[in-house]
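thread from #wetlab-drylab

HS: before we spend reagent money on co-crystallization trials with iron/sulfur cluster, can we at least see a predicted complex? here's what I'd submit
DV: go for it
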Amino acid sequence: MLGQMIEDRIEDHNPESALAWLKRGYRLNRIKLAVGRRDYLPSQNYLSKICMDAILNPLVHPERSCIVNIFMPGEVLQSFSLYPQFCEAFACYLNGTKCERVFIDWAEANGVPETFCSYHKTLIGAAEAGLLPKPRFIASTTMACDANINTFRRLSEHYDCPLFIIDTPTTYDVEAVSYLADQLRALVDFIAQNLHEKPDLEKLIASIRRANRANALYRQFLETLQTKEYPNNMTLEMYRIIPLQSLLGSRQSTEYFRLSAQDIKQCPDVDRTKTKRILWMHTLPFYQPWLKNFFADGKYNLVLCDLNFVNPLEPLDEAHPYEAIAKKLLTNTFNGRFENRIQAVLQMAQNLEVDGVIQLCHWGCKQSSGGAFLAKNALEENGFPVLVLDGDGIDGRNLNEGQLRTRIEAFKEMLGVAR
Amino acid sequence: MIASVCKYTPDELFAGFGESCQRINPTALAFDLSDQYTHPNLCSFAKALLQSCLQGGVEELLLTECCDSLRRVGDVLKQKLKFVYLLDLPHDNNGVCAVDLYAGRLLDLIYAYETYSGEKFDIAAFKAALPQAKETISQPYISIMGARINDELYHSIAKMAKLPVKTDTCTGVSKGFTQVPKTEDLQQLMRWYAHALLRQNACLRMENIADRNQIWNDPHLKGVIYHTVKFCDFYGFEYAKIRNKGVPIVKIETEYTPTSDGQIRTRIEAFMEGLTPQKQKSHSIVTGYTAGMDSGSTSTNVVILDKDCQIVSYAIVPTGARSLDGAYRALEQALQKAGLKKEDINRIVSTGYGRISINFADQDVTEITCHAKGVYFLDSSVRTIIDIGGQDSKVIRLDEEGNVTDFVMNDKCAAGTGRFLDMMARTLEMDLGVMSKLGLQWNEEIVISSMCTVFAESEVISLIAQNKEIPDIVHGLNQSVASKIYALVKRVQGVGPYMMTGGVANNKGVVRAIEEKLGQPLLIWQIPDLCGALGAALLAKE
Ligand code: SF4
Ligand code: SF4
Ligand code: SF4
């Protein structure tokens, strides 16, 4: 309903009205979320709320918002109490509202290649069609993928708004750390200047402390996940990227990890006779009804997505905040060699003793699908069955349900005999 | 020999080891080996590179961390070749720190190659290998911009072009070095070298691309052929930006196979025709009868005009396996109808896919120009032509004088073409005539979401299984064609009045669906299939 109204208004070139309706819809949803869902744990209800806020705030307060990519360090953004809108999250919410197609088509009609990542197409469409208000600035790292430089350069021209690109080297060494740390210092000055504020090291340190606390709690959570069956679905798993990235360093993020570390202790023990544990690689097509059901019947549990363990969880050194954040970016498993990511997934698969791994080859994502078979081989050599799916985290038109069902059914049969 | 692919690679370094590092630009006929190691949706060049390295021949490879595709090719080949090195190329091509960083990376490369080969690096030999800067073109030329282009395509463009062709892609730039420092200090030297490499004209992968303006602001530049590689996304963005800058421009996309297909040839030729407009346009020189032949993939159409540009006869015959045979048959039929002999025809112009094979035609002209000519003759108020044929669809923009100002064609896939409808009609087990009418009798709105023919087919099958009404399914298919066409219309910024040509214009359901999308009626001539042949016959008069 809401989706159709927004699409109609965009097609009628009335983005102001579309935005007004979108905000109304999201506010209403926010009220519903405050009541919470019975089948969700407290941490999950809390997560749903803070994620909705994270999307809504930049729409309501564009003057304190920025558009960023997924790996833009939250510690810095949150030290300025900014409202970052990051590409993948916003695109997912528009998909949740069922209006992503109008923006994807908009972008394609305006020259964005059809083979481009649909998270980015949705964001570009939403910006250029006039739905997403002009932010204070735009900032992005060159990692995880090529889409960033293309999208954010284009958006900065569209909005006529300042752009900061953090050039992330792929090699992790002393030179790279200092190269990156210098850019992070410049980023802080850039943000301060755009907000007409003074850079405040104390605030950055406070933000890092909160992030460190969040990471420590998350580490506890992941350790407990080895033995506990934490109920989960694809949407919640996608939500978790927000407190791990753009919200990291905020109180909301730390509070979420505190609640989830608490909740998981109350969860039942893993029962391998009843439930198979699945590790997911890359983004999740949470909108896909059939796939949703696959994880809903209790036989297959979505244990974790590898987007939720890209960074080391060791505390950042607050005495050297810029170097610490630089190290965090450089050691992100999405940076550089695909081997890094494979090793991280393999280790997690072993720690959590999962039964199988599903990897999504998201349409147009060379960063990830380029390494799909390397990952498959490495994991299978270590005894983990792997299913490689072709699809799209946003645009259902690039996902063939019939094919998906056949592949998953076959995978289920495989898992049945695997253990 | 060490192979490299990027203009930012320090090829000359290897002279310091008594080796040569050469730029390779492989194409591939098949991707069977690359598909074993990586996903097919990687950029086609990256796949061609992977394929050719896996086939053997390359043992030492120096890549830059240019893009995600090449990064993954590097990841795969690391396990396969003797020496694979991925240079950590900064994105910042302006900053001082990036130069320092890159200089350090170059030193690391020297150390790594020393370790690998056991050779010592010789500074003098390196310096001697640095090429001098070349002179720039100072006469009218055509530029090939965009992503790298394969050598075969470059040569065929150069042959078609009436002006010199310059390549402003990553394959075309030749480095030139001035003021090589005297120093023998390797660190200092690498700093200078890194600086020189990073300050070359930026490619789209770099952070600062302002200097690219120079390319399209050059007064000698007469036109741009903009090349993109399938699944490379960098360059589509620039194309979208510069297509409104006033420089004549045409976009082509390839998959890095050694042969270029007919569609690309058509695009380039139509573009060249537009660059050199015929001056004496409306003065008929040729008197008497002329004929136009449109040799399409499914049918060959002929129009014969008399001295007053009246149609005296026409024919539409199936092309068959050989376009030349189809052409003979079509001409024969048209002549017979008019009671004429071949000698009565003073001039013949051919167009369409098979235009080159019709050896008895006096001239061949692309469909783009012919459709424009034909439509403008029929109705000079038309500003946008929508032509949907069997194999491809195009949208052509005209100015007040009937000149082509812009055009687009569908990409390789069948979506939005007559072939798409043919295949769907077959799936629905009905003929096209029935399908045309059924498309108007729908009740329920059904969305066929897949653009891809194969996916759409399976969607249709599952709709049939759900007992959906056939007219509703047909309507859904028509809508899908209409939205694909609408996207093309938007790309040329189409304005009314619109005329639709080509065989699909006979399909009432599709026509209605497009009209709804446009919010405007479509003008359609009685025999819309003949517009191309009519234009050709008119051109034969000039
Ligand atoms: S899905 Fe792939 S291409 Fe898209 S933003 Fe993520 S890493 Fe980039
Ligand atoms: S796009 Fe740029 S970095 Fe990539 S190969 Fe071409 S010149 Fe090199
Ligand atoms: S064509 Fe594009 S994607 Fe392919 S290697 Fe070059 S820059 Fe990368």
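DV: Chain A touches chain B through 50 residues (CB under 8 Å).
HS: ok that's useful, forwarding to the group
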